[in-house]
């Protein structure tokens, strides 16, 4: 109701595009709070895919689309929902969820990007907030409860009554309102898609794919069609906006590997067919890591700059206790992708396992400088400083971790304890005071609410 409930497309009409949310005057932080709260509920319930490889792919795809957005004022967050149904949605504040089932149904990166572009458009056009404003008399707590229920498969009748019936308006008025939203999002979405050098036909192809799947007995529960119905008008209007496609982006297309890896993490049976990468993942799944290592080694030797091959190969080498070989692969990847977060984190953990804490600290400090707001870095630093008997720095890392984990009171207590320590030096004292000042600024803007 608040973000993605739409009824159907409407015929194209003349006129200017509506004012985009990126440029409208409204409370950005209010939107962010709503989206963040629902996202956190989904995360706490284990419904969000957190594997760093998968998470990064979907966010890189989204970032490519966002690169053509002028005057952007939101920090968008794309995430994969652990659900086999075909669905996608946009929360206020730029939180955009894509179900695993939709990703696995897509045929290429252009089709998947078309869904992301459409949902970005909903956020930019403030459709979620407008639906909230139209549903007068429903408080935010009720909205969030209904929304969380809709996303986890419960409370759908209540949600539908609220959205389509309209607590403060007639049923037809709300449906017409959301039809308009779908049409607007299509127009903006195709512009984003093509502006970011994706093939606009991906949107048309995905519409056709869904339309065909809706009549198939083998495909059940296409939630996306309930909120984004596909009509002949919608397909033809999108086709009319297509322009000739030519590849301009130099970014490698790893969609099939991403899809294989998602299937690996979300399914018990990958099957014996498919790419050699999928075959290797199947061997890992079945417990035959030695055979998988041989196959991954061949793939990596043939394509040494392929991040997916190298990462999975190195991880598998670690699992079969070939740490030296794994370290070599990680370092080779870092030569191609300097200070890459995922590879650096794995290498740092490998160094910790082998007792080389000084070397692990060197990597952790580089990550801290480059990714100062990633709590995983501080989690590792706590252990490293513990092993190196650096109690004050360990306390600093603990405070930083709590601050980034949404526990400001705990962070303030630890920072204060540091300031009262007789062992603190002037440089560390200055850093602590700076962090406390930053924490105060964050609290003033409500980032921890």
Structural overview:
The longest helix has 25 residues, at 171-195. Helix 12 (255-266) packs parallel to helix 13. The protein contains 22 helices and 3 strands. A 3-stranded mixed β-sheet has the order 1-3-2. It is globular. The chain is mainly alpha-helical and 449 residues long. Among the domains are: 28-240, no CATH class; 268-338, Alpha Horseshoe (Serine Threonine Protein Phosphatase 5, Tetratricopeptide repeat), CATH 1.25.40.
**Rounded Rg:** 24 Å
Total number of strands? 3
What is the arithmetic mean of pLDDT?
79
Question: Which residue ranges are poorly predicted, with pLDDT under 50 across at least 5 consecutive positions?
Answer: 1-26, 152-177, 216-221
Quick gist of this model?
With 449 residues, the chain is mainly alpha-helical. 63% of the residues lie in helices and 3% in strands.
Helix/strand layout:
Layout: H1 28-44, H2 52-66, E1 77-81, E2 88-91, E3 95-99, H3 100-105, H4 109-124, H5 127-134, H6 140-151, H7 156-166, H8 171-195, H9 201-213, H10 223-227, H11 232-240, H12 255-266, H13 276-285, H14 289-302, H15 307-319, H16 323-336, H17 341-353, H18 357-370, H19 375-387, H20 391-404, H21 408-419, H22 426-444
Parallel strand pairs: 1-3
Antiparallel strand pairs: 2-3
What attributes does this structure have?
22 helices; mainly alpha; 3 strands; globular; Serine Threonine Protein Phosphatase 5, Tetratricopeptide repeat; 3-stranded mixed β-sheet; 449 residues
